[in-house]
């Protein structure tokens, strides 16, 4: 077995390597001892090595590694700052990579205390800049003592032959990324993917082989082998598409599972299905955890926001593992919480996605207004969005939109080549359906769903655009001023979007008696998830005082100030032939919500007129239903 301990100067590679050598009886080698003389001289004079200098050295090491493997193994300490260097060292499969990482001040302190070593401390900065963080191997924090670090490595190694602690079924992007995240954080994880002849063959074993830098990852193509490799009670995470595939997988697993095993559905399942499955599996003695996971591929790999529901006792058995892989909030706490019973985890993930739809559409509308109303090009728009990031509107979705706008292709922009038909997998529509069932006004977020549906009718739209001769018309007013209005209009829309989503959560939580903690939900959405933003950070505090966003005094202050920006922008946009579904819905929602005497008296009178549906008089303290014979008043 070959261990390669990497890290910049001062990270303690030699100390850890020597200590590990004592405990394992494997010989220890320091890569620095294999440098050609010319390199040593350069380093002593404080001259950084270039890649040309490093090549012969890395090739020598690569040969040595193969040699050491044949003679029983070794431990090598080597900076291996770049991925290309590590690839050269990877001369045999199954190398155990240990990456030592620490903060610059600590490394500097260590270098200054060194004696009899030719490394000039001034080179640390260049090394840190060169370091490419590998996405495999064990990542260890060097602020721990060498003994602790070596024990951590040995524990990892011990668990290699032991049963896996966690199992993941489904090797789509999310399943794969979560598996690597777990293996990297020291969780022995077994993965399985179904076998479909000619289509899906050896997916799991192939994935584990391709990631041999993760020794804690094991791949199985046979369900029985996979299940036998899991420690009891088994903890199995399903990362497969929502819908009937989940029921089919559950039925396949049921005869093979033991009482007390834990089944986790980490996909975007509809919460009512999860409620049903919770009851069904409880009767079978299986602990079921419906769990929302947000963050896309990158989040799953580096740290997602995790929203588990189900029974708290089962949650406690899996939370130590989930804590390791979750994103961290500003205070370093995992973006993970026990949401509540049954499908509540999937419910809040569904609402998360609904807010995500609203935010995406609001940003798309904003970008369109800038592009065709203000005639800014994508790079100029990206610049404005980046400025907004520093002006109180920071969010992941704004940030990625700026990135997207900057991507060029040939002489144009990639975004202009993307077909304007928005797809959806269901969560937005389910939220809308749930809002209607629970009588929750949801217009801003519901418009985001409708906008995607409209967008998908591309052929029909193209035909009608010709028939109606539709063109956006540019704004004549002052650009700078409009941008200021637009920023505030978008900021207020964003507040309304969140208000719609959190109101839905409150209503459903009350109906199911789930006792959802909104401040905690906002907290786990401050990092790792798609809708992380400075607004979400603010909501963590806000929900400690009220569960009504529009009743918070800071929000009232801003909403009063920005209301005229929103109405102005919506008016301007509509007059210039821009469809602004979410922004206009947000305006109507806000105006409809802050009005005392609404127009609904007319509705009630109409209902009573044609159907004797009765109405209540404002001046009747008993609220007695009344009917008027409207015809008798007709002259
Ligand atoms: C997340 C995302 C994720 C996925 C959406 C896409 O939180 O990580 O929301 O769940 O990207 O399901 O949904 P649509 O296909 O419906 O846009």
Topology:
Layout: E1 2-6, H1 13-24, E2 28-30, H2 37-44, H3 51-70, E3 74-77, H4 83-89, E4 96-101, H5 104-112, H6 123-130, E5 138-141, H7 146-161, E6 166-169, H8 173-184, E7 189-192, H9 203-210, E8 217-220, H10 223-228, E9 235-238, H11 244-253, E10 262-265, H12 271-283, E11 287-294, H13 296-302, E12 305-308, H14 312-325, H15 344-373, H16 378-393, H17 396-405, E13 408-409, E14 412-413, H18 427-437, H19 443-456, H20 458-468, H21 479-512, H22 518-524, H23 534-545, H24 553-575, H25 581-593, H26 600-611, H27 630-633
Parallel strand pairs: 1-3, 1-4, 2-3, 4-5, 6-7, 6-9, 7-8, 9-10, 10-11
Antiparallel strand pairs: 11-12, 13-14
The structure holds 6-phosphogluconic acid.
6-phosphogluconic acid (6PG) is lined by residues 268, 294-296, 353, 356, 423-425, 427-428, 529-530.
Protein described:
- The protein has 635 residues and is of the alpha/beta class.
- The protein folds into four domains: 2-157, Rossmann fold, CATH 3.40.50.300; 164-342, Rossmann fold, CATH 3.40.50.720; 349-594, N-(1-d-carboxylethyl)-l-norvaline Dehydrogenase, domain 2 (Orthogonal Bundle), CATH 1.10.1040.10; 600-634, 6-Phosphogluconate Dehydrogenase, domain 3 (Single alpha-helices involved in coiled-coils or other helix-helix interfaces, Up-down Bundle).
- Helix content is 55%, strand content 9%.
- It has 27 helices and 14 strands.
- The strands form three sheets. A seven-stranded mixed sheet has the order 8-7-6-9-10-11-12, sandwiched between helices. A five-stranded parallel sheet has the order 2-3-1-4-5, sandwiched between helices.
- Strand 13 and strand 14 (412-413) form a beta hairpin.
- Helix 21 packs across helix 24 and helix 21 crosses helix 25 (581-593).
- The longest helix has 34 residues, at 479-512.
- The radius of gyration is 30 Å and the shape is globular.
- The termini are far apart.
- The model has no long low-confidence stretch (mean pLDDT 94).
- 6-phosphogluconic acid is lined by residues 268, 294-296, 353, 356, 423-425, 427-428, 529-530.
